[in-house]
Amino acid sequence: MRTALLLGTLALGLSACTVTVRPNLGLQGSGSNLIANLRPDRGEGSTYALGEPLRISVTTRTAGYVTLIALQSNGYTSTLVRNIYVPAGTTTFPRAQDGVTFNVAEPRGLQRVRAIFTRVRPTTDLVLRGTYDDGRWNASSSDYLQPYAAADRDVQETYLYIR
Questions:
Q1: Which of 95, 114, 92 is nearest to 160 (CA)?
Q2: How many Cβ atoms from other residues are within 10 Å of residue 82's Cβ?
Q3: Least confident stretch, 6-20, 44-58, 133-147
Q4: Radius of gyration over every alpha carbon of the chain, rounded to an integer in angstroms
Q5: Cβ contacts of 123 within 8 Å, gap of 6 or more
Q6: pLDDT reported for residue 142
Q7: Cα–Cα distance between 111 and 35 in angstroms, integer?
Q8: pLDDT score for 132
Q9: Closest Cα partner for 30 from 159, 136, 121, 138?
Q10: Rounded-to-integer distance, Cα 56 and Cα 66, Å
Q11: Which residues pair with 90 in a beta bridge?
Q12: pLDDT, tens digit (0-9, with 9 covering 90-100), for 96-149
């Protein structure tokens, strides 16, 4: 009887839980482990209201160059920072010297942020503007990284929600 009651209580409690499953994002070039951590200031998967400030922290194992790109829920893509030199350790964007703030804006929903890291200064700029689907988003990142040795590049992605 106690077992049935315990299982019934457990089932009732778990039915109120939400389980989120994230698909494999298909990142190419993310096997070198140069980016140790990438996350919004409230943590991965956190929620922000329209107009609230957002900071993104990138922790790297070595010095190099970071580009941050964002994919909004409507597929619109933008470049947040481009080819910024970072020392090994944690750098939080936007930095004080950038003279900008990141404030969340429409559209509401899932926002993905991707960090692209190279040990050497990139010879080209990754400029993303317009609407992208997952295939084009991944292809753009992969094409950009193609000239760099796998040991000299990394890609990581995080996400947040805008309500």
A1: 114
A2: 16
A3: 6-20
A4: 19
A5: 147
A6: 83
A7: 20
A8: 78
A9: 138
A10: 12
A11: 59
A12: 999 999 999 999 999 999 999 999 998 877 666 778 787 887 888 888 888 888
Q: Quote the pLDDT of residue 135.
A: 81
Name which of 125, 158, 152, 150 is nearest 140 in CA terms.
125
pLDDT of the residue at 118? 93
Claim: this prediction has a pTM higher than 0.90? no
Separation of alpha carbons 158 and 10, rounded Å = 31
CA distance 32 to 83: 19
Q: Are 104 and 54 in contact (CB under 8 A)?
A: yes
- The answer to whether 127 and 79 are in contact (CB under 8 A) is yes
- Per DSSP, the residues of 54-112 read E-EEEEESS-EEEEEEEE-TTSEEEEEEEEEEE-SEEEEES-GGG---EE--SSPEEEE
Length of the chain: 163
CA gap 8, 119 in Å, rounded: 54
Residue type at position 32 = S
Cβ-contact 142, 28 below 8 angstroms: yes
Domains of the chain: 32-162 (2.60.40.1930)
